[in-house]
Amino acid sequence: MASSSGMKLVYMAPLLPLLFMSGVLEAAGAGSSADGTNGNLHGSVTSRPAAAPRGRSLPESQSVFSLDRYGARGDGRNDDTRALEMAWKAACASPRPAVVLVPAGRRYLLKLLTLRGPCKSSVTLTVKGTLVASPNRADWSDSDRRHWIVFRSIDELTVNGGGAIDGNGEKWWPHSCKINKALPCKEAPTALSFHYCVGLKVEDLKIMNSQQIHMSVEDSANVLLARLSITAPGTSPNTDGIHITRSKDVRVTDCKIKTGDDCMSIENGTHNLHVSKVTCGPGHGISIGSLGDDNSRAEVSGITIDSVQLHGTTNGARIKTYQGGSGYAKDITFQNMVMYDVKNPIIIDQNYCDRAKPCGEQESAVQVSGVVFKNIRGTTSTKDAIKMNCSENVPCQGITLQNIDLEMQDGKGSTRSTCRNAKWREFGTVHPQPCTATDTE
């Protein structure tokens, strides 16, 4: 990613006069941009608000750092990674709130990139145009194939703008072992990764065709994900929409997710997550897990999935854990969900195994308890509308089924419920009747 020394001179040449100009404007109290037009967001300048009525404090002004001012070409062919790195460093060092601007109507090609904090003030990355991944897979080495754009250790970060993040995933998918069984299984990049971020907001973006997972939130807190459109073909491998792990106090709302894997995957260390008004499909549905793989400990609690529609997904409301794990998944509510032609509308599977070889029988398991399925209706493409396949040694406990109505798609026969090692109760009308087919109840 590092540019040659010649390239550095090209980028740095306009930077010194630009910073000087910004300082002059700030000292003079000017509100115009570097090109002399008020309100134009194309320079790294300080804009000042109009005078506030007496008795009200003025809002903080913002410094704007446009990629184009740092040598970006925006033609979708030349590498603009260095330009974004420089714009970010300048914004992160700003003593007042800063905006990194990706101008509209252009495509900025990026290789692997990490934008780091801590920053001196809050930073907003405003994407008006498109950030597009390099189509050359050789730009990623085996030492780090898991990431594309990473935000790390940044407080009060906002990413917004109405633009697009394009992962160019069609260059990666044919090389997946899930597409070509003869190939070895290798990881592919996640389009957007947020690590150790507090007070994060990601809003009003289109994220498409990621190489693998579209967005991952890890080790973060106080997070809002809102009004996102996440899309990839239903056949694209491992392209989860939103992945959350080791994070707390997260809210996801008003999102449309169409991918080739889980619309949302909620994994170990997630606490106090609220999801509402999400439309999902195609994809694998909304999944808690997988948890406990490789005999690991998992802890998940305080999860609410509310007001969700699922269209043609493999699963609806799902909890999946490996045998041999430990820990817990508790205080979980799936409610107010509508399903259209969903293969497994309600499913708990403590014997999950996504391995080339069968998983061996083990005694320990992640404890699943305090789970509510409430106000769920719609249609399924299989008879088993409700499936609870729980551990013999660590049974599922405190499972509530309330106001459930799941019918066969196009009225083709009747649905049923199957249970194994599950302790449940029902309220209201539940169709199909719980556990009409059971191994151990």
Automatic annotation (TrEMBL):
Subcellular location, record wording: Secreted, Cell wall
Positions with biased composition (Polar residues): 34-47
Stretches for region Disordered: 32-59
InterPro entries: Glyco_hydro_28 (IPR000743), PbH1 (IPR006626), Pectin_lyas_fold (IPR012334), Pectin_lyase_fold/virulence (IPR011050)
Residues annotated as the enzyme's active site: 284
Entry EC no(s): 3.2.1.15
Keywords for the protein's UniProt record, in alphabetical order: Cell wall, Cell wall biogenesis/degradation, Glycosidase, Hydrolase, Secreted, Signal
N-terminal signal peptide: 1-27
Major localization class: secreted
Keyword Calcium belongs to the record: no
The protein's name: endo-polygalacturonase
